[in-house]
């Protein structure tokens, strides 16, 4: 799972670099390309967050540094919404089909059907 996490982190860096260096001439295609890249970056961030959560859940719990003391905590929460849509694409391989469908998904609005809440960064005592 850690290798998959590293792969998505690499993909996010590539897409982020593409967005940082993107020069639009204002055409419809350039606008759509920027939107697709932004959507991909968002999807990769979601995948990374879920993978980090799964990795953390599979590791043994760390003992608390201070036991039995009540206090204030800060807990960053990540809300992940899921919407579903099936795409039909022309491709030679499954990998190409998935890449094309993900690329095309950036052009569509998805109605959120369900949500999950996670605390991927844990909590910090104030």
Please explain how this structure is put together:
It is a single chain. The protein has 126 residues and is mainly α. It has one domain (2-125). It is 49% helix and 11% strand. The protein contains 3 helices and 4 strands; from the N terminus they run H-H-E-E-H-E-E. It has helices at residues 2-20, 28-58, 94-105; strands at residues 73-74, 78-82, 114-118, 124-125. Strands 1-4 form a two-stranded antiparallel sheet. Strands 2-3 form a two-stranded antiparallel ribbon. The model has no long low-confidence stretch (mean pLDDT 80).
Brief overview:
It is built from 3 helices and 4 strands; from the N terminus they run ααββαββ.
End-to-end distance: 32 Å
Write down the domain tally.
Answer: 1
Report strand %: 5-15%
Average pLDDT level:
80
Reported for the largest beta sheet, the result is:
2 strands, antiparallel
Strand sequence of the main sheet, in spatial order? 1-4
Shape: elongated
SSE pattern, N- to C-terminal: HHEEHEE
- Helix count, DSSP H or I runs of 4 or more residues: 3
Structural class estimated from helices and strands? mainly alpha
